[in-house]
Amino acid sequence: MKKSSSLLKGNASTFGRDVLDVVCLIPFGRVTTYGAIAAYLGSKKSSRIVGWILNSVKEHSAIPAHRVVNRFGLLTAKNHFKSPTTMQEMLESEGINIENDLVVDFENYFWNPTSTLSI
DNA sequence: ACGCTGACGTAAC
DNA sequence: AGTTACGCCAGCG
Predict the structure, then answer these.
(1) Cα–Cα dist A118/A80, whole Å
(2) Residue A15 exposure: Cα atoms within 13 Å on the Cβ side
(3) Which of A30, A38, A101, A111 is the most buried (most CB within 10 A)?
(4) pLDDT of residue A13
(5) A61 C-beta less than 7 Å away from strand B
(6) A46 CB contact with strand C at below 7 Å
(7) Residue A119: its pLDDT value, please?
(8) If you compute the radius of gyration of chain A from its CA atoms, what whole number of angstroms results?
(9) What is the mean pLDDT for each group of 10 consecutive residues in chain A (119 residues)?
């Protein structure tokens, strides 16, 4: 069931393509983690790569990279955005409250691709 | 062409 | 129980 994502281009030969597909599917006002995406792709140990792939994502891309945080709900990626507060601003703009770079009620907003996409 | 680094997570000591 | 080391894949020097 997994593996056959290829929701965007179809050339899902690379891990990065799958990552972008999943991130792009994150619902508005929801967040997910690098590990969840990696686990959905079949390699939970590849969580590092997920973040690295997102680094290639430009803000003008359709990929909501700001909705991806680490497993603690910490905005580790905020440092990589235009401004350290950009990520927080965008999340708050979606109704997610951030306190001290940490997502409030993180598990409540957490979106699990494995539970949602691979029913 | 080769090697290192990097937005994490888990296992092992 | 806390700390250290490793694994994964892709982009860049």
Answers:
(1) 31
(2) 19
(3) A38
(4) 56
(5) no
(6) yes
(7) 61
(8) 13
(9) 36 72 94 94 87 86 93 93 93 96 94 84
> Is the minimum distance from the CB of A15 to strand C below 7 Å?
yes
User: Measuring CA to CA, how many Å separate A58 from each of A65, A85, A117?
Assistant: 9, 16, 25
User: DSSP labels for A26-37?
Assistant: PPTT-BEEHHHH
Q: Is the CB of A53 under 7 A from strand C?
A: yes
Note the Cα A21 to chain centre separation in Å: 10
A32 beta partners: A68
CB A64 within 8 A of CB A111: no
What's the confidence (pLDDT) of residue A70?
95
Contacts of A93 (CB under 8 A, 6+ apart): none
CA of A27 to C1' of B1 (A): 42
